[in-house]
Amino acid sequence: MKRWIAIAAVIAVAAVLPLLLNPTGYWIRILTFTLLFAAMAQVWNIIGGLANQTSLGHAAFFGIGAYTSTILLLKFGLSPWIGMFAGGLLGGIAALIIAVPTMRLQGHYFALATLAFGEVMRVIANVWTPLTGGPGGLSVPFMPPSVAAYSFKQLLPHAYIALIALIVVTFIFEAIRRGAMGYRLRAIKENAAAAEVIGIDTTKVKLQTAVISGVLMAMLGTLYAQVAVFFDPDTVFSAASISIRVALIAILGGVGTAIGPILGALFIIPVEELMNDLFSASAAGLSQLIFGVILIAVILWRPRGFITVFDAMVARLSGRAGS
Amino acid sequence: MAFLQAIIDGLLVGGVYAVISIGLTLVYGVMGIVNFAQAEFVMIGMFVSWFAWAYLGLDPVLAAPLSFAVAFGIGWLVQGQLIARVLKAPSVAQIFLTVGLLIVLENGSLLLFGSQFRSVTTSYQTQSLSLGALFISVPYLIAFGMSLLCGVALWWFMRTSWFGRAMRATAQNPMAAQLMGIDTALMYKIAFALGVGLTAFGGAVILPYVTVFPGVGGQFVVLMFTVVVLGGLGSVAGAVVGGLAVGVIQALSSLVFPIQLQNLVLFIVFIVVLAVRPQGLVGASR
Fold it and tell me: Distance of alpha carbon A198 from its chain centroid, rounded?
């Protein structure tokens, strides 16, 4: 009960916060992207945290989602709300295509295979010019603002959509973690051979998580396309700024926990924006350099994420209360 | 004829790929770490060589030992200060530590050297030897020769020197090696420093035909992983075969496909090999 009150309080604060910001300003943009990246990291967390498969190729599904809804809108005038589900379907199929041959691979090998898959999609999007517009990218056409057309004059509705998306994927994550699938995944994580013996179809369970993660990531790609309004293959299929970044957010926050990706995004996205603002004019590369240093420092300091800081604090507090 | 020409070019370029990638496979073989930042040492090797050419008047190929030495020093520090701390950490921490290193190295060089492209001019740059109807590019040939030299030296070091044997012992069983009085932490430092040194050496010898800029490492990342996965991650002999194979695959695919698709072919080969034979085509011999 206490837990639900806490969750409701957090959501209420998150719901009021956008209203306090200037609706056309800079901070609402950062907030929107923070929420969106938190959702993306949460989706990565389903496969990266629960199934313990470090994917470095989630940009593949993200880009598929962004391109599918935008192309459907451009060529057939289909609302991005519908395009989002079409993208999700294709994202799920793509996840199946890459996961079937590679799911048996462990740790580094799976990371490498997915990294290459993301790059394959990027090259294809660059070359298939008649469909994707090639390296020149795509502009999302302007529609008269309405909810049905997923078109708004301001960023505020986008911030709320991103918030709802984050809440939805977090609930999906928790449902999987606490449900039968979560138990199976934990069993596999502890000891794959033993899990097989007690009758868990390890390949099937892992495939399910891969497909769920792929579908959701593609749907978030549509959200991104609608906010960004313009994108090209090197942005949405980027290994560094999508695949690695979402994994990083989840890892810095705490892999396999529902709160981890949210903590990670609240830290990384504003810090990155801030450093870009402070340094990009004076010296190219400095902000990214600092970002890399912070990343290394956090991994050396807390290899299991920020969440361990809170755990340690809670342990200390409750220890003191008990004595 | 175009086919034979492609094979020759592919083998010559592939020899360099082998040396660049041996470092990656060596580090994995000895301590089980996949260094995602390895390709950045190609960039470091190229920059060292470029500065040696521009300010000391050294031929970029002759500056290769200097590139090796600089990267060796950086590698020694990186292993001792950073990698050593995550050897027992979960693989995600290892992956992302080296990803962080990649970001630092690439942006550090952007900060120091700026984003412009730099190239060298040498007397032999555009020369080629003719062999009947076939041509052998002189810079390719020199780079291949230097790589061969480097590979043989490494082989000799690993086979005959005490350090080489101690390193192989550490790779096989660190606990037993430690009991035999081998300082495994030192072996890890040597392995990592040697690995990135070789990669930087490979970067220096290709400078006559590749321009250098801070992001140049990105062009080699998937290529290097394809090489080591083809040969079997951890296998030095495999990396040589993998390097030559990747060179030939690249050259042949450029006969059939437009240049933009050259990497696509490589990526697909990479994924297929990982899926079908993750232990590598050559087999798991160290």
Answer: 33
Nearest to B218 by CA among B74, B106, B104, B68: B106
Fill in the amino acid letter for A210.
Answer: A
pLDDT at B276 over 60: yes
At A291, the pLDDT band (50, 70, 90 cuts) reads confident
Q: B103 with A292: CB under 8 angstroms? A: yes
Give the pLDDT confidence score for residue B41 in this predicted structure: 95
Quote the pTM value: 0.85
ipTM above 0.85, yes or no: no
Q: Please tell me which residue, A63 or A301, carries the higher pLDDT value.
A: A63
Residue of A nearest to B82 (CA): A300
Q: Indicate yes or no: CB of A48 within 8 angstroms of CB of B92.
A: yes
Q: Select the residue of A113, A285, A295 nearest B110 (Cβ to Cβ).
A: A285
- Residue of chain A nearest B269, judged by CA positions: A116
Chains A & B: contacts with CB separation below 8 Å: 134
The count of domains in chain A is 1
Contacts 24+ apart (CB under 8 A), B31-35: B31/B83, B31/B87, B31/B171, B31/B188, B31/B191, B31/B192, B33/B83, B33/B86, B33/B87, B33/B94, B33/B98, B34/A108, B34/A111, B34/A112, B34/B94, B34/B95, B34/B98, B34/B233, B35/B98, B35/B101, B35/B192, B35/B195, B35/B196
Which residues, at least 6 apart from A223, have a Cβ–Cβ distance to it below 8 Å? A36, A84, A158, A161, A162, A165
CB-CB under 8 Å, B260 with A299: no
Q: How far apart are CA B123 and CA B54, in angstroms?
A: 15
CATH code of the domain covering residue A212:
1.10.3470
Q: Tell me the pLDDT tens digit for each residue of A172-225.
A: 999 999 998 888 888 888 888 888 888 888 888 989 999 999 999 999 999 999
The answer to whether B27 and B217 have CB atoms below 8 angstroms apart is no
Closest chain B residue to A279, measured at CA: B111
The confidence band for A322, taking pLDDT boundaries of 50, 70 and 90, is: very low
Query: Which residue range(s) make up the domain with A302?
Result: 2-322
Q: Fill in the amino acid letter for A171.
A: F
Q: Tell me B181's DSSP state.
A: T
Chain A: give the shortest CA distance to residue B77, in Å.
14
